[in-house]
Write a structure and sequence with these properties.
Layout (H helix, E strand, L loop, with lengths): L9 H9 L7 H11 L4 E5 L5 H14 L11 E4 L3 H14 L7 E4 L6 H9 L3 E4 L1 H9 L10 E4 L2 H6 L3 H9 L6 E6 L4 H10 L4 E5 L8 E8 L5 H12 L4 E5 L2 H13 L4 E4 L5 H12 L5 E5 L13 E4 L6 H8 L8 E8 L4 H11 L4 E2 L23 E2 L5 E2 L41 H10 L7 H4 L3
Parallel strand pairs: 1-6, 1-7, 2-4, 2-5, 3-4, 5-6, 8-13, 8-14, 9-11, 9-12, 10-11, 12-13
Antiparallel strand pairs: 15-16
Helix pairs in contact: 2-3, 3-4, 6-8
Bound molecules: adenosine-5'-diphosphate (ADP) and magnesium ion.
Amino acid sequence: MSFSTLGLNPLILKAIGDLGYSLPTPIQAEAIPLALKGKSVIAAAQTGSGKTATFVLPILDKLAGGETQRKKRARALILTPTRELAIQVHKRIQDYAKYLDLKSMVIYGGVELAPQKQQLIEGVDIVVATPGRLRDLYTQRAIHFDEIALLVLDEADRMLDMGFIEDITKIIDSLPEERQNLMFSATLSRQVRELAKEYIPNGIHLSVTKDSQGSPDIEQWITTVDKDKKSALLSQLIQDNDWSQALIFIETKHGAAKLVTQLEKRGIQADCIHSGRAQAIREQILADFKAGKIKYLISTGISARGIDIDNLPLVINYDLPFPADEYVHRIGRTGRAGAQGQAISLVSKDDFKNLCMIESRLGHLLERREITGFVPRKAVPDSILNYVPKAKRDENGKRIVADPSLKTGSKSSSKSKLKPNFKAKPKPSSIAPTSAKSRSNANSVCQSDVSQDKPAFNPWTDSKK
Ligand code: ADP
Ligand code: MG
């Protein structure tokens, strides 16, 4: 199926032709015709599958003919979890709408309110916003929602994970009831499905799981190392491989800044982004990284969700994230739009619980590779798939629960009570830890995200069921 058969405005087709898109991705082919017919859609598709164009193109098509509304009004509202993603979606709108006479703007916090208010007064068709700042502006009557005909929730799972549920529901409750809704999520968590049921009861559910040109092809492997050797190992890997670029995830802001210094001491130029840096600096660094001016970018998880970097060959997890879904999102920054990617994780004994969670989530062990000179003193054992942790606590001793609405039991459940959702679960012992190259296709990961009715098995929360 080509783009021209989807029924889009020729000026939109011209713009996507300029970008070099030849064929729609599977989610685009399925969802765009429905959206053009005015249907509400709830779509689950893996990261990097082209969801942005899936909602932006029908919006442009619908708004292209009409008039820009009165001041302080917009006709389409797109909510995204982070500023970076809002900026990126807005940039795509500008690309896709370059032959159309439509006005769009982006609204996010951490910057002055006045310019955003002024832009709203001047009139706009499409608003891309993070929920908190939008709610502020609405409360201040800087924006009215009475003309909103289209609502998009992008990265719905992430917005909920980030605690935006109250902002989102308050915003949606203030919108006209007659409107089209498009909701996108990489994973269909229980909360996402509940939100969809409540606010988009008549939505058509789509999940694109099949292998396709849009599926990430990501070679994943881990290497075990003592915690205090991680920066030396990373430096060596960088020096040995001379990768063109890498996005390196680390857990803390402090750790990010420290790692930049440690790499610099070994002659490796790197920069870091995290929520503690000024917005303008974050934007500049991200732009420089996208332009290839920065080779190694160290980032905390929050700053890079949903971010799309052309041809990023490599993601490195300097620490393993929690919860396990975060791993899937992080590695999804590479292997996008059919390109091949690599994801490497540096795993110390401290990361063992997270490794168990991730491998349980994936349903298989990750290939281990040994790097000479870095074999750890403290060995990292093989994971137990279906791992049930007793409890994970944060630095203040507070119990961390993946979904705060559910409580983990302090009693450890017996394994026989567990009902894992993943299929074809190999026994750990059947996989040689240092087996020859085995390519793990992240597509299978995402299939389990979207194809099951129940949420993916989560040992933190499911062990009590
Ligand atoms: P998602 O939101 O699903 O994670 P994005 O919308 O960010 O993915 O798209 C990922 C990448 O694929 C972007 O670089 C985008 O420009 C590109 N892309 C989207 N649709 C197509 C297409 N039909 N053909 C080629 N590239 C595409
Ligand atoms: Mg996206």
